[in-house]
Write a structure and sequence with these properties.
CATH class of the largest domain: Mainly Beta
Strand order of the largest sheet: 1-2-3-4-5-6-7-8
CATH architecture of the largest domain: Beta Barrel
CATH topology of the largest domain: Lipocalin
Strand content: 25-35%
Order of helices and strands: HHHHHEEEEEEEE
Number of helices: 5
Helix content: 25-40%
Oligomer: single chain
Number of domains: 2
Radius of gyration: 27 Å
Low-confidence stretches: 7-61
Largest sheet: 8 strands, antiparallel
Mean pLDDT: 73
Shape: globular
Length: about 160
């Protein structure tokens, strides 16, 4: 009596290990995963892609998503007391920012930046900065309070679209 269940189990095991799929759906599943998906070829990602992926927590970045995000930052952003931020797309990727972030002459300049999952990242006077989408209240500037489409670099430095 015990040999019948064992024989049935062995038959099922042999069928599962067979090199020929039992039906077409198993064949399709077997063909879905390729070596490339499991082990990408050497040099598949460029150094720039690798740095972008590292900047967003090693998550894969879809170039179409980045372009969509980049469009959200382009244009003219106005702060208070003459503060302004103009963001333009750079040929080949990234953005150029022409900005004034204070009243002094040394608080104005042009900087290259990139759009990441965290926001608009740039280096300004040796300091890494990130402008993130917020509302006017988050800028901590009373003249921008109540506005809906803003970028905040830090409290006291924000820019909004009218």
């Amino acid at each position: 009596m015990k040999s019948a269940p064992i024989a049935l189990a062995l038959t099922g095991l042999l069928a599962a290990c067979s090199s020929h799929p039992a039906n077409e759906s198993q064949a399709n599943v077997a063909n879905e995963n390729t070596v490339e998906e499991v082990m990408p070829s050497e040099g598949a990602a460029t150094e720039e892609e690798a740095m972008t992926n590292a900047a967003v927590g090693n998550a894969a970045v879809n170039p179409a998503d980045t372009a969509k995000l980049e469009r959200d930052y382009l244009g003219r952003w106005v702060g208070v007391e003459g503060m302004i931020l103009n963001v333009a797309a750079k040929p080949g990727g990234g953005v150029t920012m022409d900005m004034r972030w204070g009243l002094d002459d040394d608080m104005a300049g042009k900087f290259d930046g990139s759009v990441t999952a965290e926001g608009l990242r740039f280096m300004r006077n040796g300091v890494a900065e990130t402008a993130v989408h917020t509302d006017g209240d988050a800028t901590a500037l009373k003249w921008l309070a109540g506005k809906k489409d803003c970028l905040t670099v830090k409290p006291g430095e924000g820019y909004c679209r009218d």
